[in-house]
Amino acid sequence: MRVFVTGATGTIGSAVTAELLTHGHTVLALARSGASAEKLRAAGAEALPGSLTNLDVLRAGAAQTDGVIHLAFDHDLTAPEALDRAITQETAALHALGAELTGSDRPLVTVSGTPWVPGRASTEADPLPTDGPVGGRGRTVTAILDLASQGVRTAAVRMPRTVHHEGRGGFAGLLTDAARRSGVAGYPGDGTQRWPAVHALDAAALFRLALESAPAGTSWHAVADEGDAVRDIAAVIGRRLELPVEPVPEETFGPFGPIFAMDQPSTSTRTRRTLGWNPHHPSLLQDLENIER
After folding, report:
1. φ, ψ for residue 270 (rounded to 5)?
2. CATH: 3.40.640.10, 3.20.20.70, 3.40.50.10310, 3.40.50.720. Which one for 2-161+198-221?
3. pLDDT tier at 259 (50, 70, 90 boundaries)?
4. CA 269/CA 30 separation, integer angstroms
5. Which residues pair with 229 in a beta bridge?
6. CA-CA distance, 110 to 68, in Å (whole number)?
7. Phi-psi region of 272 (alpha: psi -120 to 50; beta: other; left: phi over 0)
8. How many whole angstroms separate alpha carbon 178 and alpha carbon 88?
């Protein structure tokens, strides 16, 4: 299968590109710069110059391939309005891709986060939030999944808050960065709240499986670790960085503080059973042992 991939040079995208190529697919990838194009070509992919705002380029990429995996998202959230702008940008891009694929029965695999459900681990059957800071993204993904009724084999891979590789990435990576800056491996609350996680290479395998065989209009959970206690994560960070481990105010983590304090475990039972996904790379706590002092 010839696959159009957006966000192909990021942590997840690089792993997805390698996974596709290893399993006999070819990759046409969106490239925002010359450096990105060189990186893609070195990996064995073909580069298509353009960005997420170039809707004609996105439509052209979808038109000349057998399916699409969308991973690109603007993570520059330095300004208060940046998240809304990034969601608006992604929404336009996804609708352009979906319109190009309408009536073709070709796959469109997109990405979101695992939902939070009070009092229990979330499952693939739980809806995405449609309000709050990321509610716009939930509404967009839900709308894209509904394109299943218009002849697009849509699927959404829901990612946990920590996607890690070689000790870096996700919420755990933000805790590590905060510890380096402050000199304390801190965590909000009592640290019993749980965060799900997945290794980037395991997540990549799930994106490929969803592309190849997921039924239209379905959601899947890329969850390898159902939920590690945040204080256990901080304990590994503290040991690796030789820093004290202790609770700190939520405000220490800025806008992420309230999210960091939430208990948000998630499961992937249906995903493993239905798609045959079998995560086998190091767990988050094992991978954090790669943190450099």
Report:
1. -65, -40
2. 3.40.50.720
3. confident
4. 33
5. 194
6. 8
7. alpha
8. 29
Please write the tens of the pLDDT for every residue from 134-158. Answer: 788 899 999 999 999 999 999 999 9
Residue-wise burial string across 204-231, b where 16 or more C-beta atoms lie within 10 A, e elsewhere: bbbbbbbbeebebbbbbbbbbbbbbbbb
Where is pLDDT greater, at 81 or 226? 226
Multiple choice CATH, 163-196+225-268+282-290, 3.30.160, 3.30.310, 2.60.40, 3.90.25: 3.90.25
- Distances in Å between the Cα of 68 and the Cα atoms of 149, 168, 216, 243, 248 are 18, 27, 13, 44, 42
Say if residue 62's pLDDT is above 60.
Answer: yes
The single residue listed with the structure tokens 């990429």 is 61
The predicted pLDDT at position 177 comes to 94
Q: Contact at 8 Å (CB) between 278 and 199?
A: no
